[in-house]
Design goal:
There is one protein chain. Helix content is 23%, strand content 23%. It has helices spanning 44-51, 96-99, 146-180, 211-217, 268-280, and strands at residues 8-14, 19-20, 25-29, 36-42, 57-66, 72-74, 78-79, 89-93, 103-115, 118-124, 128-133. Strands 3, 5, 6, 7, 9, 10 and 11 form a 7-stranded mixed β-sheet that branches. Strands 2-1-4-8 form a 4-stranded mixed β-sheet. It starts with 7 loop residues before the first strand and ends in a 10-residue tail after the last helix.
Length: 290
Amino acid sequence: MANEKNPYQISFTVGLNYITPAARQRVGISGNHNATALEFTVDDELRNAVENYVATSYVRYRFDVYNAASELFRTESQDVNESSHEDYVFPYALQERDTRYGGTVKVHLVLTVLDGEKVVKEVFCPPALLQFEGPTHGTSRYSYTELELKALKAADEAFNAVEKADLASDAALAVKQAYDNGELKGEKGDTGERGPQGEKGDAFVYSDFTAEQLEALRGPKGETGAQGPKGDKGDRGLQGIQGVTGPQGIQGIQGEKGDKGDAYIITEADKTEIANIVLANFTDVSEVGQ
């Protein structure tokens, strides 16, 4: 807030990757640090990001100031909740060391997230750019050229891009964790319309499946079923080909001598049969009796 000591005030609004106004603000001549008061207001997005970074986090703030000679001056960190700045509006009073040279002064608001005593995140807000003119006898040898200012601006933009990517990565990780914990699961939506039937595909073949898939398709072994009824007797088959005669076996042991038989008595029938056999061996009847 402007007062008699600081008649001119510049208010800045800072976010994750921006600051307004972003252009250099002309604030008088070097050494006149009491002429300007600065005020930084953090937007809701950045405030929520640092306050909700971890469940037990609390936030501190400080200012990193680079004067026109690139000398860094860092203020002491203060707890946001204990510094009457719970609305995230932070004033900064320029010091003599900040304005002793003509050129561009960069003022960074730095927010530090702590979990207990451990620093888990630091957010370097884009810098407020203040332009101080050199003394009346000429521009200070420490003032930047236009090319150097462009290089510094490019470096700031690159730094801010890295910070933005880091915050985006952290946010994505938090979303993934919430999804894994089931915190982002919404209500089941309505069933969509049925799409058109696709073309008939080729039938599966055995080679389409891996050994693991085939094993998964195999069901458990079933119980043994009951024996079925006896079938009808089939027709007799064709006789097979006679096998090859085997080798003659070894002659067996001679048996015991049998009992002596009774003498044979020739009967009349025997005599007749013998006569017939003899006659059959002759072709001419006249030979009988010779």
